[in-house]
Amino acid sequence: MITNTTLVLTNYLYMSHFRAAMACLMLIATSLIANAVDFKVKGLTKDTDGEPAMYVTVKVYSVNDSVKPVVTAVTSEKGTFSRSLKAAGKYRLNLFSVGKTPVNKIFEVSSAQPVADLGTIVLEDANYELGTVEVIATKPLVSLEVDRIGYDVQADEESKTSMLDELLRKVPLVSVDPDGTIKINGSTDFKIYKNGRPNNSYSRNAKEIFKALPASMIEKIEVITEPGAREDAEGVNAILNIVTLKNTVTKGAMGNVSLYYSTPQYFPNPNIWLSAQYDKVALSFYGGLNIRTNKKANESTSTSETVYEQTGDILRSDSEGTSRSFFGYWGLEGSWEADTLNLLTFEFGGYSSRNKSSSFGLTEMFSSNGDRLYHYATRSHTDPSSWTDLNGSVNYQRSTKRKGETIVLSYRLSGTDNRSESESYYEDYDLLPVPYTGILSNEKATGMEHTFQVDWTRPFAKYHTIDIGGKYIYRDNHSNSYREYIGFDTDLSEFKHITQVAALFADYRLNIGKFGARAGVRYEYSHLAAKFPDDSDTPFSADLNDWVPNAGLIYNPNRKNSLKLSFGSRIQRPGINYLNPAENITPNATSSGNPDLESVRKNSLTFQYNYMGARFNLGLTANYNFSNNDIIQVTRVEENHTYSTYENAGRLKGFSSRIYANWRPTNKTSLMLSGGVNYNHSRNPITGEKAHGWGNNIYGRFAQTLPWDINLSVWGSSYCSPKGLNSSFRAAGWSNIYYGIDLRKSFLKEKRLSVGIGVNNPVHSKTPGYISKSWADGYHSRTFMALKYYRNFNVSVSYRFGKMSTSVKKVKGGIQNDDVVGGGGGNGNSGSGSSNSGGN
In which band, very low, low, confident or very high, does the pLDDT at 32 lie, cut at 50, 70 and 90? Predict the structure, then answer.
């Protein structure tokens, strides 16, 4: 029986549980209601002229926190911003834009007032020089100046997991071909600098190094479209400046290791990058290997036919060849900042390559009526063909108490060693046209360069900056050539070429409101001396005086649009390969350099329009360039034998037009297009030869972030070279079309592990081939060449370790020698080659 006491107790427990459950439900409901509140901050930014302030960096911090922002964004094209906040409370808003005074505002959001509308915020023009804001981390992604375009790598989230070659594809005016060739405005006629100074390893081996260089180590990428007197970019149309992270006061170490493998090679390529700092001393080291031991991977075949117009005879040859190579690079750099006014830096690095190659060919000469006059087979082997480069520099920077004023003293040493040993034997011959049965060759070319430079930079009167400096270069190139003509004769040639350059430069910059200007002039005195230690020729010397002016204007009607007009002049000095008079003789041809070559002067006029929207960027460029003493190869024919050398006989004119467009319709989708056309006209007034023709190139890329944060990239490119004065080159069929697909995924905390896979030219395994033609007074020739491997698969793995917000400090400016074409001094070939692929 249930008693009254039991009923009372039961009712009491029931009501207690009911009240507790209701209390929990009310607490949960209250929490859900609170969480349902959409806390938000919004506002509108404008310039002092009333125009919307676009792409202003917006950061929101908790009121007591100045380190880690809770919100990071940029304003829209209309200058507006609106961002959600996770909770109620007091916050601090920070607005920053280059050239504007930073704005800080305190605001509060609550359940009663969840939206903080800050209204219209006017950004005042800053009273400091542009150079003084470079240390601030919150910069827009893209910046424009009178002579360059800057890309803020650290502001790009993909920099944490990408390599440098991947990020370069996003930089305006820059394109990367599928084989790794880097181009600016569609041309390879540029130099690569690191922290404002030339870097031989980067310049000669950009393909390999940029695949291994983590973008997280880079602060920004600069495309210097109009190199001025201070940059001293003689001989090139542009500069690609890679700026590594600046140092902060911290301790620690970090690094990146990676492997890159591509078929049909046998071994993956390892690479490493390390950085460490203790107190005021910072060090950085990088290195890597590129091993290509699969001979079939570089297998090629060629067929050529040469018609000698004087006799009507026809020379036909077929050949096939293979090669193997080994390449390594390394670099060490460091800095010591004694105090805020004194900075000492050093760099030391180099690279070395070794190649082996073998070939076999059959050569036949036929008369005009079809009779065979002679034939022979050639078996050749080269081991080794090696190149070694060592370079280093020491720089001291003294800053004054005036913001932006520095004095820099620099010394740079660069040495090269190029060696080649080869042997060629003639077999199965009939009526051999030469009195020897083979050639044994031993070639050696060395170079040593010392450079001393002083630079003084001083801002004044708020809008002005001047750069004044001087430089002295001592360049010593030496070549030895030994040839044994088996069963006939030997030939020994020794050549030494010394160049001394004394230069003074002055550069002026103006930045005022919407206008910017730059003007500079460089005077150079050069003393060139050629010596022949073997007494094979008479020594000679020459003294040259060159004035190199440049000027540029920029107008920014608003933050979206920019117009630039510039004029540039530069000189190119011939290198040891163009100057060396040693003869390279085969049964059908003789070639040599010309020690009498002079410096080449090239001039250009460029107009550029840029549109920088929040999701769409557009760049249009038109360029006219000309030269009246360009170095060209000249050829003559005597008795079915060609003789070639170099002369300052080229008269060149060119026009190019380019477009760059980048569109991001969503945060996970982007499309990029870079392309252009160019027209070249060249002539040789001595022979009366003329040539003209059109060329074009195009590169497109589609990128999409898939589910699970997988990054997809689909790209394609095509090119066509214009006709030259004595030669032309074109692809057969679809050989000028490259395309591929890449996938990349990051793993682990902070995305430290990154894995990528890709395929290039998946549909086509072999190329139809390439056709090159050459001609001169007395002959014309046609060669067809094909590569065995066209399709390849690649895998890359990269792991980032350690943690440190620092890298080696850099001195502003520094030594830059880029006046040599044809080897033997300076930085050698530009980017990924010295030939112009259809650009400026």
Answer: very low
